Amino acid sequence: MSNATQSLAGKRITSLLDANSFVEIGQSVTARSTDFNLAEKKAPSDGVITGYGVIDGNLVYVYSQDVSVLNGTVGEMHAKKITRLYDLAIKTGAPVIGLIDCAGLRLQEATDALEAFGEIYFKQTLASGVIPQVTGIFGTCGGGMAVVPALTDFTFIESKKGKMFVNSPNALEGNHIDKCDTSDAAFQSSETGLIDGVGTEDEILEKIRELISYLPSNNEDSDAYMECTDDLNRVCEDIANCTGDAAIALSRIADNEQFFEIKPDFGKDIAAGFIRLNGATVGAVANRSEIYDAQDNKSEELDGSLSARGARKAADFVKFCDAFQIPVLTLTNVTGFKADKCNERTLAASLGQLVHAFADATVPKVNVIVGKAFGSAYTVMNSKALGADMVYAWEDAQIGMMDASLAAKIMYAGADAATLNEKAAQYKELQSSVESAAQRGYVDTIISPADTRKYVIGAFEMLFTKREARPSKKHTTV
């Protein structure tokens, strides 16, 4: 322990970690450069506190930038403390949590500071997929520092003081901060896809603590379990009424009805996050057409399609789960792809990423079709064709190319209403019914919505020892 924990940066660490568990590393490190009278300025710990402690008894490494020391700027020794922390974390297989409050590059150190940024990026890249990396932004995170959260797995930002940007709002042609603050939490959380949660400082620290409780310590850790105090055969009585807001549906399935959602403001047509099933962490991805607020009031209604942002959000999440051996559950309820000019710019690329993420993942994968599953949008949502190990479908689910009425209108253009109704009913029975999909082997079992929890738990228990070999390669290119 050290007196450094009395600073704001230090208090964030002590608030984050279990009481009296923080051990500081590199307390005496200070800047080496003497240019521009830097030696005359006091720089305790060179503006960053580094060390280790525990969260709920689990080892984590933490660095917290001290804005009161040289504005928290990154220089040579500042970066070395962070990179050495990463070295320890990789050796011991424990997460790294960065608490950012930084004015950016230290101008007095120039090229040394630029090299320092590069060294941090390099260590983050080596750690990616090996240990979880989490970032909390409490002040400024601008310029080259903004790349740091982009290289981590999860990022949270303080709602009022948190600022993240590569170029400041006033540096953007035709813009100024009063017109559109591209650095603030609201813009970053809804537009960039990098922010997993927004809140007060205390809320962010609590979110990080909760997130760590779901995650394994490293990519070889298979002991990320908690004792399950919920009934494994619990009936989900009202889940059939929750298909619109998949976040609610996922909570109904989860142990003690707890769902930790990530990126709630980005790609809202997808709900993604962590649940526990029989005490084990499971990554969950689901289509979403309605959003309800904390008071159970419908706050937003979507059209049931899959957007480019939703696909990208889901793909990134599935890749994380696969890297850390976390099983994946999907709830499919999708009518097609989002059709507008904005989405069309990146939709194909985003869908390619989603297809690749599901197809490439070798962790246990379970899909539950809870509503409509139409067209290629159904295929990309963890279908049997992409490698889902078990596919369940609710009794009233619809699986096919498109809505039966629309299919009849296309196939029998110009026919009278009676003929269209007849052909639509025939198409629904032969091509869009859940029974038809089950007969073809695309659905393993048709289930009652109320039984979803016990079937999903049973599937993951059966798949616990899953092993799947893939062609040898250096890495993929998608």
Automatic annotation (TrEMBL):
The keyword Transferase applies. Residues 1-234 form the CoA carboxyltransferase N-terminal domain. SUPFAM superfamilies: ClpP/crotonase. Signal peptide: none annotated. One of its GO terms (molecular function) is transferase activity. Residues 231-478 form the CoA carboxyltransferase C-terminal domain. It holds the Pfam family Carboxyl_trans. Transmembrane segments: none annotated. Keywords: Transferase. PANTHER family: PROPIONYL-COA CARBOXYLASE BETA CHAIN, PROPIONYL-COA CARBOXYLASE BETA CHAIN, MITOCHONDRIAL. This is Carboxyl transferase.
